[in-house]
Specification:
This protein is 31% helix and 20% strand. The termini are close together. The chain is α/β, with parallel strands linked by helices. 44% of the residues are buried. A hairpin with a 2-residue loop joins strand 8 and strand 9. The strands form two sheets. The chain has a seven-stranded mixed sheet with strand order 4-3-5-6-9-8-7, with no helix packed on it. The chain has a two-stranded antiparallel ribbon with strand order 1-2.
Length: 220
């Protein structure tokens, strides 16, 4: 697994979280402002982790980590997932911490669980004032890892009847943040009893999630 260098501090994900024989751990972002960062907490990331370990040959810790956006522990996670339905507000210190994390090699996946969009864009503008989200073309490698998505993000749940879109923030030539909108990947990762999604939708969500994980271990 790659090493993340932030300033003079070297973070080695293999050992920094005491993950034992596992290669690394995925993080769920805990944030402030009143939004439900815990919306998909019980089964979403654990199911994705199992799918990746079974289908990609990864060795990810089955236990997800919960990490606050302003915490130095953020740097211990090569991949951090964020979701929710409502308000997300970043303090100046939190914005700087997230910028340092992303600029230094980290990766953030934001998944709008419906209602997050109006907060995502100003928050990330505070993190990277010089950057704007761009819609990634369907040819982008993130859609063509082990699983092929020639038409981009799969549509998992209906929100406004709009097509699913994948946006990215590119910092110094590197994709540091992937934002899935009108898609709801995280809901699709959850266990059947939560939303009773069809197996077809569940598999599409899992495969796209696996592409995200494979992308960060290949291109980041």
């Amino acid at each position: 697994m790659r090493k993340i260098l932030i300033g003079a501090i070297l973070f080695i994900t293999l050992t920094s979280l005491n993950t034992g024989s596992y290669s690394f751990r995925l993080g769920l972002l805990k944030y402030h402002g009143g939004g439900d960062w815990y919306a998909n907490l019980p089964t979403s990331l654990p199911n994705l982790i199992k799918f990746c370990n079974d289908n990609l040959g990864t060795n990810i810790d089955p236990e997800q980590g919960i990490v606050e956006v302003g915490s130095p522990d953020l740097f211990n996670y090569p991949f951090v997932h964020m979701t929710g339905h409502g308000c997300w507000i970043l303090s100046n210190d939190e914005a700087q911490n997230l910028r340092n994390y992303l600029a230094g090699g980290g990766f953030l996946h934001i998944d709008d669980n419906y209602g997050l969009n109006q907060y995502v864009r100003p928050a990330m503008k505070k993190v990277f004032p010089e950057l704007d989200f761009i819609e990634l073309p369907f040819s982008h490698p993130i859609y063509h890892q082990k699983f092929d998505f020639p038409n981009g993000l799969p549509k998992i749940h209906e929100h406004d009847g709009l097509p699913a879109q994948g946006f990215g923030l590119i910092y110094q030539g590197r994709l540091v943040c992937f934002y899935s909108y009108q898609c709801d990947l995280g809901d699709g990762w959850e266990s059947y009893e939560v939303h009773k999604d069809s197996d077809e939708l569940h598999q599409k969500a899992m495969k796209m999630g696996a592409n995200l994980i494979q992308y960060i271990t290949t291109f980041q």
